[in-house]
Amino acid sequence: MDRGVAAGGRSPTTRRRDHGSGDVLGERLMSSFFPYTAVRETHSGVVVLIGDRALKVKKPVDLGFLDFRSRASRETACRREVELNRRLAPDVYRGVATFPDVDGGAGEPVVVMRRMPDERRLTTLVQAGQPLGDVMVRLARMVAALHAAARRAPEIAAEGRRDSVRDRWLASFRQVTPFHGTVLDPAVAIEIERLACEFLAGRGALFERRVAEGRIVDGHGDLICDDIFCLPDGPRVLDCLEFDDRLRYLDGLDDIAFLAMDLEHLGAGELAGMLLDRYAGFAGDPAPPSLRHHYIAYRSFVRAKINCIGHAQGDSAAAETARAYAALTLRHLRAGAVRLILVGGLPAAGKSTVAGLVADQLGAVLLSTDHLRKEMAGISALSTAADGYRHGIYDRDHTERTYVELLHRAGKLLGVGESVVLDASWTHARFRALASGAATRTQAQLCCAECWVPSAVRRSRLTARRDGASDADQQVAARMAADADPWPHAVRLCTTGSPATALQQLWPRVGVTDGAVPD
């Protein structure tokens, strides 16, 4: 079974068209129902649209990931389709009937549905630029409610573990390899594989936490704009994956991310963000932004793969579409990369200001030695603990324990997908080496920034300093400067100007281009 093709929602041979293809089953349907409105065909079924009804029949085909060759298998799939899709569209799926066989046979099982108006299809409304904020809220609530009531079991949870997610990525990588250099830019494909594997390698704790929290559910599995209809009394969500239960066993965030990806591909990135934000609220899901990006990237890459296969089967437009999906994949993998950012420098060099701004704009967790040192000593962060250089809570032992605890906390956060900004002086190479080790263990991207101002500016700032967590004075700053180890791999940020100007020097090293920050 090709789970990737199935999870993508449509095989490359999917087609929806008026009758006239010469398909034998379609011909028999048309000969039995006349007059008709239209016949629409997919890789696995035929839908006859008559008046206010849609009649859906499974094709007697074996596509690898589904096998409908026997009548019994088709009837089982029809009944399962009605049962599962009634969860989100109970008034659309009317039931299963038997379509008379013109040759007097047992007849063909058929799903009887209420016909949906094409003009209310979500894809159509998005492309028309209709205001859809309220629809996003209702969809987020519907899907969150589906997930809350969904079945959970060990076999379901297994599909959301890190290794299962990785196996699906690896299968897609193998399938697109023949298209490197013809459809996909090899450099883009290689970077996608590297970033996806790096994220997964360091995030075992994140995926296990998702399992432990019951986030892996029997969901929908195929949430796309084409199968959602926005009616006056609320959306109707159709066509979940019914032919293989494992395809619906997934993280709830993965499920909703499919729809967010589809919206973004249609140019509605703002709606996609709103959908995810509202879903997080309704589902009570505080997933890190990195996991959102990862699942959007995964869904997008499946679509890239499907279009690569479509190109090989003669679809002339599929190559360009595949490249667009690959670009979307890469953008989200870059934005979702887990980062460990060290922001250091001497006292009054502006490191705490810069560290706070970086954390705010990247949505990262900010940890500071100034605060942690006093927390570990049982002192309020704003209480003074001033003492001589390397005395009191600033002696070697306290400093060692502070940095070890800082990096312990950072490592735990990195493992569950949170980027971390560490505000400390980082004047000693040994502590920087420990930080590098923490980044390596969690497959996090390490970025180092050293804030700097001329000595006269630093002295002026220290003289003017009043309340704050730092206790350093000019004498301490001078001693620290004399003892500091060189930091050749850090980007030096001059903070004499505006913080925004200083940050422009940092963003390219963090992996952010054109002055923008990851969304």
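[next item in queue]
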Amino acid sequence: MEKTVPAYLLAAEADKIQDILFRSSRLREVVGGSQLLNEFCKQGTVLLLEKFADKSKDRILINDGGAFRVVFDDENDASAKSRALKFADALKEFYRRCLGGNISVAELVEYKETDEKSFSKSIKDAQKSLRIAKHQRIAEPYTDVSETISHLPYAAFCTSCGIALADFEASVENKKYVCLYCDYKDIQRNLSKRAVVNIFRAENLRNLKRSEINQNIKYPDKHDWAEKIGEFDSRNYVAYLLADGNSMGKCFDDCTNKKTLKKLSRSMTKVARQSLSLPTTELFKTQSSIKGKGILPVLPLILGGDDIFALLPAPWALDFASKFCTTWEIEMQKLLQTMDLLHSPTISAAIVICKSSYPYMLAHRFGENLLSKAKSFSRWLPQNAKTSAICFGLISGNEISNPNLDEGDCRSTLGVYFANNKISKDFLPLSKLIDHRCKLAKLSAKRRNELKELYGIDRIPKESKDENNWNQELETLLKRIKQIDSANGDILEKALQDLGSSASGYWKEMKFHHQYFKSNGLSDLLTMWDYTFALDKDLKDKVYEVE
């Protein structure tokens, strides 16, 4: 009887990737760090594996976004295991030298090469083992360059990250000292600065002619991205988009063979790029202000698998996010169907509106809180009603407008919106805000401010017994608006009904987890008034002109 030699699955994952990428003061270095991580995963891993095993490309199942799954199946059992352990040590050291971070490595998982059930089980076991390694630091204690270091009399800290000691003086005139890792990011950004543009040229802006792309897409070498994109807004605001797929781990767990796992892993980033294509294409084709500036309006800062962090113009942020999520659902569904994986993929997203000068790291931190609420909402939905969800927030000066789900019986925000046009008795699709922004465009600023003040957190009735007085104030204001401008008054009343209900106070009764509350989407529209423009209507369109 022929002896079956077992194969081994090595699972590894980079720790605190965002801390590594965000350890820079400029967005250009974040882009460079993201490109550097991508180069490390796609090319560096293959080159390193060649030193430890033949057919290195065939052995790699996943090498994207800081996640790695590698198979070792040599004829000699002892040789396969030994090579896998040596490769793991080399991978950790190589990553530390390139990006200054740490990689957690799980214990090797043994499986039978010819048994699909054994392979499927090994994927789940490797994931469990990796979680243990990451939480308990079985692989090795995490060491960060920010740990306490001895002071040297002739030493300086990096002027970019402010954490590591500078390795050399980058600019004598401006006294700029940089560490090795920030310099790597800057070099990678310069080497691959066309890569971001090429993403859209080759793959995403497929509906634009090549001559139109070459004419319109430019890379702002001498300016900060946030500063240039902030010019699309009259008050110099920008938007950050954060997105993360829901329950994608279950899709990987259901992969029963290496071919399916490889295809899923290598196609996810492509799906994310394709999903950015639709709203980006619409920006170029519709908005005259975008064409006038002549630069790429969307900057992917992190684009790995289903993890997305991008910078985009603020005026169209909500519609952009809605179309991105809807396209992602469609494209991912197509991908899963080709692999016979029976899943209904959804994605959660968050939009953060802030000044272009606002630190991107703080914007991302705020966005993560919003994203966690969107993901919590998606998990709460019944299995037959799963859909993509979006949360958004505005950072205006020192004030943060945060969808708080714990305000009381009546709340000044719905908190979460559907990304598509799904109809629900509880929550609303984001497209309703976009539509009513067009319909209410001619409502005067004075009336909007009166409504916004009425829906303010300080004015919203906290208990049901206070509702009657508040409802009467709203009816009085609505009656006054109708007397002065009957057309806009009727439009406003229909908006209150559509974004809420026809009941007294137009409150929409909602349920989230075990909480019941009332709200109306008009309050969110008033807060995000300047950032709910439709992608398919130019800002100079007559629908937005105030008479």
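[queue empty]
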